[in-house]
Specification:
Blueprint: E1 2-6, H1 15-20, H2 28-36, E2 46-52, H3 57-69, E3 74-83, H4 85-89, E4 95-98, E5 103-106, H5 117-142, H6 146-154, E6 157-160, H7 161-166, E7 172-173, E8 184-186, H8 199-210, H9 218-233, H10 249-255, H11 257-283, H12 291-299, H13 305-335, H14 346-361, H15 370-379
Parallel strand pairs: 1-2, 2-3, 3-4, 3-5, 4-7
Antiparallel strand pairs: 5-6, 6-8
Helix pairs in contact: 5-6, 10-11, 14-15
Length: about 375
């Protein structure tokens, strides 16, 4: 029975996206499924065909343990490259063969970290412990000391088949006739790509294809088409005997519960974010006199801010119309009150004032009745 270890070694949670795009990758779940399908009474040898640039140390460690614990005999065949995590995964077998054109690469574990100096010290200690754990597997196979193995890892050591056999890392060179040239490629500055899709790309694909808040929305249709097409393109043994079934949420929940939980959790998070954004946009529309309308939009009608803005404009327009109507009504009442008549003769007041002035300035010789006549005329 052949188990293909090709492409990057990845966590089980990410296996679906590699399968979706028909990319080679291996995860603990994929290996576990393979081992679960082996008849316990069948003692057939398990052959690992390896051509991998490595990947997740912890995923490879889990696969290593699964193979070590299995009762069947396991043989590894390095067909091209066994690098990084794949270099110790191959050691889970009872016998290791390697093509003369293949290579093995061992190096230090690496990771991304952020934070202050304490976080950096903590991350450094984790990496050192991880290197020691990986070196344990090399030591069990080769018998070399930890110091020697850790030095080779520090230098990112590349080994041809001949060199890998010389240090005891493999048992046999395939097709060997004894004429293989002796050479080692080792460099601490070598740039190496293990073929793993960056996590940010996986997250973006998950958000784009699985971020469905509406089960009947366009995102759901895209997911359904992609998963259905992938299922049809890669039928399993049982699926070959059955008609392809459409992928809906219920099928996703039953057949892929872990993926369903990811979709549900992502949908919940996006729903919370969208609701918070809606409430904030409504808060930004606060306008005196519209409190009742705003509260209703928040909690009863679940109205979007754009629709609420239209309602507020209508309410303000109605209030303005009512105000003008009330002003006109008040003016109509005032207009019905009669006004007083204007003075009839403004010159009369001036004449009376002049007469009074003359009377006060006149002497008695001008007539004894002059003052009285003037006062009488002024007061008349």
């Amino acid at each position: 029975m052949k188990l293909s270890i090709r492409g990057p070694i990845i966590p089980s949670d990410n296996q679906w996206i590699y399968d979706l795009f028909r990319m080679d990758a291996v995860s603990p779940k994929k290996v576990q499924d393979f081992l679960d399908n082996i008849d316990p009474s069948n003692n057939e040898e398990i052959v690992l065909e390896i051509n991998s640039g490595g990947g997740s140390v912890f995923a490879a460690s889990e696969i290593y343990a699964l193979l070590k614990e299995h009762p069947n005999n396991v043989t590894s065949k390095v067909l091209g490259l066994a690098a990084s995590a794949a270099s110790f995964l191959m050691l889970a077998s009872n016998r290791i063969l390697m093509t003369p054109t293949g290579q093995v690469m061992i190096h230090n574990a690496a990771s991304m970290a952020s934070g202050d100096y304490r976080d950096m010290d903590h991350a450094s200690n984790i990496l050192k412990n991880t290197n020691m754990a990986i070196a344990n597997a090399y030591k069990l196979k080769t018998g070399k000391s930890h110091d020697e193995l850790l030095s080779m890892m520090d230098n990112e050591t590349w080994l041809t088949a001949q060199q890998a056999k010389q240090i005891g890392l493999i048992d046999e060179i395939m097709f060997d006739n004894g004429d293989i040239a002796n050479s080692i490629v080792a460099s601490s500055n070598t740039s190496f790509n293990d073929g793993i899709i960056p996590q940010e790309i996986i997250d973006k694909l998950r958000n784009d294809m699985l971020g469905m808040q509406n089960p009947n929305g366009p995102e759901a249709s895209q997911l359904t088409n992609l998963v259905t097409n992938q299922t049809n393109m890669n039928p399993g043994p049982q699926q070959q005997k059955e008609e392809p079934k459409n992928m809906d949420l219920e099928t996703l929940k039953n057949d892929h519960p872990h993926l369903f939980e990811q979709v549900k959790n992502l949908g919940y998070q996006e729903g919370v974010t969208a609701e918070n954004k809606r409430i904030q946009e409504i808060e930004d529309l606060q306008l005196p006199g519209n409190e009742e309308l705003i509260n209703k939009a928040k909690f009863e009608d679940k109205m979007e801010a754009s629709a609420l803005a239209v309602e507020i404009i209508k309410a303000e327009k109605a209030r303005g119309t009512n105000y003008l109507s009330n002003v006109n009504k008040d003016a109509a009442v005032i207009n019905q009150v009669p006004g007083s008549n204007a003075p009839t003769d403004q010159n009369k007041d001036a004449q009376q004032a002049n007469a009074l002035d003359q009377a006060l300035n006149n002497t008695p010789t001008e007539g004894d009745n002059a003052l009285s006549n003037a006062l009488e005329g002024a007061l008349r």
